[in-house]
């Protein structure tokens, strides 16, 4: 398994996750049809589903049943979808384009976008808590707890608050503060996706810690790559507006370090992430390839 085989594996996983989402999300029918349609629009058929792919690949390390892993992968993508819908709102990043198509508040309206995000978030936890996800209630509870911690006030949402505060700060943030901001806003959900397979597989604590460290490092590298794309890619390549972060004065490692030093730091992070997987041997080849892909992607 290498970078050549990775795209096919990602595409296959994304198709599986989309199939699961189509079943797990309400059909766009009935009086609430606009809400249901917006939920599906925000999640099905868009993006590479890299967080869901992480769940599936880490679960495979421990022989977890595919159906169980797919449900957790779908839940992560619901949560991620909610975060994008809300981030795109005028009160947040005010974006008109996401994944090459109009954002939810543009395709519908702001109120529908807010409700769709709310519903995706709660549906993610309903999916994790359902007996179909795993027979062991303690494992389901752990998944719910860890996702809540990753997504909440001391995770992704907290990172978004720090991001907004940084835009109006009177002085630029120092490196440690920027790193914490990005690890919360982007990294925590990626960390959860990497750890989730270990939770499902009842892995020993040291192995779960390795997966968390892997997720933390590729999450930081992913954000650096995303910032580089914002700087260099066209809107068509990125599937969204580019150049907005620099114009808004957002706090990024790229802004602090400059493009070349930021790239070198991302390469260092990827090497560190791959080293965490040594204990799994060849079974982690796709996860190592994914780490390399994070900093070589063009969209």
From TrEMBL:
**Which SUPFAM superfamilies does this chain map to?**
Terpenoid synthases (SSF48576)
Q: What are the names of the required cofactors?
A: Mg(2+)
Gene3D superfamilies in the cross-refs: Farnesyl Diphosphate Synthase
Keywords assigned by UniProt?
A: Isoprene biosynthesis, Magnesium, Metal-binding, Transferase
Q: Which Pfam families match?
A: polyprenyl_synt
CDD domains noted in UniProt: Trans_IPPS_HT
Q: Indicate yes or no for the key word Translocase.
A: no
Family membership noted in the UniProt record: Belongs to the FPP/GGPP synthase family.
Name of this chain's protein: Polyprenyl synthetase family protein
**Per the UniProt entry, what species is this protein from, by scientific name?**
Plastoroseomonas hellenica
């Amino acid at each position: 398994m290498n970078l050549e085989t990775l795209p096919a594996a990602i595409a296959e996983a994304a198709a599986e996750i989309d199939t699961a989402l189509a079943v797990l999300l309400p059909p766009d029918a009935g009086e609430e049809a606009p809400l249901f349609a917006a939920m599906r629009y925000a999640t099905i058929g868009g993006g590479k589903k890299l967080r869901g792919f992480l769940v599936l690949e880490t679960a495979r390390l421990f022989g977890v049943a595919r159906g169980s892993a797919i449900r957790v992968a779908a839940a992560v993508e619901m949560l991620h979808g909610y975060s994008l819908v809300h981030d795109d709102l005028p009160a947040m990043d005010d974006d008109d384009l996401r994944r090459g198509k109009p954002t939810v508040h543009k395709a519908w309206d702001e109120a529908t976008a807010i409700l769709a995000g709310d519903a995706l978030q709660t549906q993610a936890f309903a999916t994790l808590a359902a007996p179909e996800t795993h027979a062991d209630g303690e494992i389901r509870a752990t998944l719910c707890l860890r996702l809540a911690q990753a997504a909440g006030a001391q995770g992704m949402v907290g990172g978004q608050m720090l991001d907004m505060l940084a835009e109006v700060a009177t002085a630029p943030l120092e490196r440690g503060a920027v790193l914490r901001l990005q690890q919360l806003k982007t990294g925590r959900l990626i960390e959860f996706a990497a750890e989730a397979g270990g939770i499902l597989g009842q892995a020993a604590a040291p192995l779960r810690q390795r997966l968390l460290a892997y997720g933390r490092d590729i999450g930081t590298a992913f954000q650096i790559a995303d910032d580089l794309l914002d700087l260099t890619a066209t809107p068509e390549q990125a599937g969204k507006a580019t150049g907005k972060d620099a114009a808004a004065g957002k706090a990024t490692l790229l802004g602090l370090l400059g493009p070349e030093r930021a790239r070198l730091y991302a390469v260092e992070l990827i090497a560190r992430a791959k080293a965490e997987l040594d204990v799994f041997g060849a079974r982690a080849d796709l996860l190592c390839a994914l780490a390399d892909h994070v900093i070589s992607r063009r969209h």
